[in-house]
Amino acid sequence: MAPLTDSHCHINFEPLHQQLPQVLQNARDLGVGYMLCVAVNLEDYPQVRALAHAHDHIYASVGVHPNERDGRDPSAEELIALADDERVVAIGETGLDYYRSQGDMGWQQQRFRRHIAAAKTCGKPLIIHTREAAADTLRLMRDAGAADIGGVMHCFTESWETARAALDMNFYISFSGIVTFRNAEALREVARRVPADRLLIETDSPYLAPVPHRGRTNEPAYVRHVAEQLAELRRVSLEQMAEVTTDNFFTLFRAARRAA
Length: 260
What we know:
Layout: E1 4-9, H1 20-29, E2 32-37, H2 45-54, E3 58-62, H3 76-82, E4 88-97, H4 106-122, E5 126-131, H5 134-144, E6 151-153, H6 160-168, E7 171-175, H7 185-193, E8 199-201, H8 223-234, H9 238-252
Parallel strand pairs: 1-2, 2-3, 3-4, 4-5, 5-6, 6-7, 7-8
């Protein structure tokens, strides 16, 4: 079978990092050949980068999550400089999250704009997080010209209308373990409709473990359950789903190279 690819994980987070050799072995055992470890702040970015340099099947991103308030807030120029690394394949995760943050969201919007500007300059796609902020996220993407570089709407939970708007701006749609949850029928309908050449899968581990592991610590190995769910929804084989989503990963993240 073609290797599966976890397009968004946080294996530098605990408890995964503490158990990393076993986590990586578990992934291999379930056919996961590649993973993208996504940065959420600058303070932990060196650890994310080091993981990608230590393992030829792991890639890195650089960015600051929209809810991060305690660490350094980078300029576009700093993001561009940090992204100048062969193992860094994306800018993010970035975006807007109005669920966890309150009050004036101008600071989130300005940070998001800087990430989009950095991505356009360095030529590496965006990883976008949006929660209870779909309209503003899409508006800002349009205003800042995110379509010029493209990227992925990660851990997608929004409507088909939001997905279609993102697709129109050259973005991919990535589904996590949420698509396996019993109450996620509306999301499963979106997953049926996304064009095959814009589909990605992820775990967002250590969060959001899919059925049958819901409620436990998530890990990249479990991306196989996401792939199985999407294969069933779209009436294709697991082999086809693995091949399509891995090919899509390398098409989108152009700086990533397949392991020899």
